[in-house]
C-alpha cells in the first residue's frame, strides 16, 4: 500500500509538471523558439491568481476566468514585441532575448511584490479523500485531471479545427503555408498566446499548492524542459507522458532513496532516453513532425 500511495503521489506531481510543460512544447513545436521566460510567465499567472484572491476575494479556480485570458494577451504581446523582431535571427539571439525577458520579469516582480513568499490558505486545498489506505489530495487530483483534459483538448484543437490545421501547416512548412494564404505572424502570435494561456491555467491551479515568489518559475522551468525533451519536442502527448514519468520517478526516488537524489535520478533517466532515442519518447526525426502528433 505504501508503494501505491507513493506511485499515486508521483502521478499527481507529474500532472503538475505536465500541465506546466504543455504550453512550452506547443510554443516550441510551432514557433521553434525555446522560451526561457516560460517560468516567469508561470510566476505572473500565480501572482495574478494570488491578487485575485486577496483583493477581489475570488477562489483561485474561479480566478482562471481572468488569469487565462489575461495570460493569452500577455503571450501575444511578448510574441509581437520580443519574439517577432528576432523571428528569423540565429537561435542564440532568441535564447538571449528570452533569458533577458526572464531576468527583467523577475526583477520587476521583486520591485513591485518584494521577495516575500505568498500563499493562499484554502481549506479545500488541504482536503484528502481516503480510499482504504490510499489518500488522494483533491487539489492535486484537479491539476492531474486538468493536464489530461488540456492535452486532449489541444490535440483535438490542432487536429479538428481550421485554426489548428493552420497552426499545423505553419509548423510543418511555413513557406508552403504562406503560399496557401496563411499569415505566419498571426499564427505565431496566437500560438504564443495559447501557450501562455496554458501556463496561466497551470499557475492558477497550482497556486493553492505552492508559494509564489519572484523566482518561483526557476523551480519549475528546468523540470519542464526535461519533460518536454523527454516526451519529444513539440509533442503534446509526449509532454503529458514525460511529466507523469518524471513525477513518478521524483516521488519514488525521493521516498525510497533520498530526497536530495531525486533530481539526479530523473536526469539519469533523461540522459539514458536521449542516448537511445534522441528524439524523445514520442518525438520523430524531422521538422515536419514537430508539435503535431
From TrEMBL:
<feature type="transmembrane region" description="Helical">
    <location>
        <begin position="134"/>
        <end position="158"/>
    </location>
</feature>
<feature type="transmembrane region" description="Helical">
    <location>
        <begin position="64"/>
        <end position="83"/>
    </location>
</feature>
<keyword id="KW-0029">Amino-acid transport</keyword>
<dbReference type="GO" id="GO:0006865">
    <property type="term" value="P:amino acid transport"/>
</dbReference>
<feature type="transmembrane region" description="Helical">
    <location>
        <begin position="264"/>
        <end position="287"/>
    </location>
</feature>
<feature type="transmembrane region" description="Helical">
    <location>
        <begin position="219"/>
        <end position="252"/>
    </location>
</feature>
<dbReference type="GO" id="GO:0005886">
    <property type="term" value="C:plasma membrane"/>
</dbReference>
<dbReference type="GO" id="GO:0022857">
    <property type="term" value="F:transmembrane transporter activity"/>
</dbReference>
<keyword id="KW-0472">Membrane</keyword>
<feature type="transmembrane region" description="Helical">
    <location>
        <begin position="95"/>
        <end position="114"/>
    </location>
</feature>
<dbReference type="Pfam" id="PF02653">
    <property type="entry name" value="BPD_transp_2"/>
</dbReference>
<protein>
    <submittedName>
        <fullName>Branched-chain amino acid ABC transporter permease</fullName>
    </submittedName>
</protein>
<feature type="transmembrane region" description="Helical">
    <location>
        <begin position="41"/>
        <end position="58"/>
    </location>
</feature>
<keyword id="KW-1003">Cell membrane</keyword>
<keyword id="KW-0812">Transmembrane</keyword>
<keyword id="KW-0813">Transport</keyword>
<feature type="transmembrane region" description="Helical">
    <location>
        <begin position="6"/>
        <end position="29"/>
    </location>
</feature>
<comment type="similarity">
    <text>Belongs to the binding-protein-dependent transport system permease family. LivHM subfamily.</text>
</comment>
<feature type="transmembrane region" description="Helical">
    <location>
        <begin position="187"/>
        <end position="213"/>
    </location>
</feature>
<dbReference type="InterPro" id="IPR052157">
    <property type="entry name" value="BCAA_transport_permease"/>
</dbReference>
<keyword id="KW-1133">Transmembrane helix</keyword>
<dbReference type="InterPro" id="IPR001851">
    <property type="entry name" value="ABC_transp_permease"/>
</dbReference>
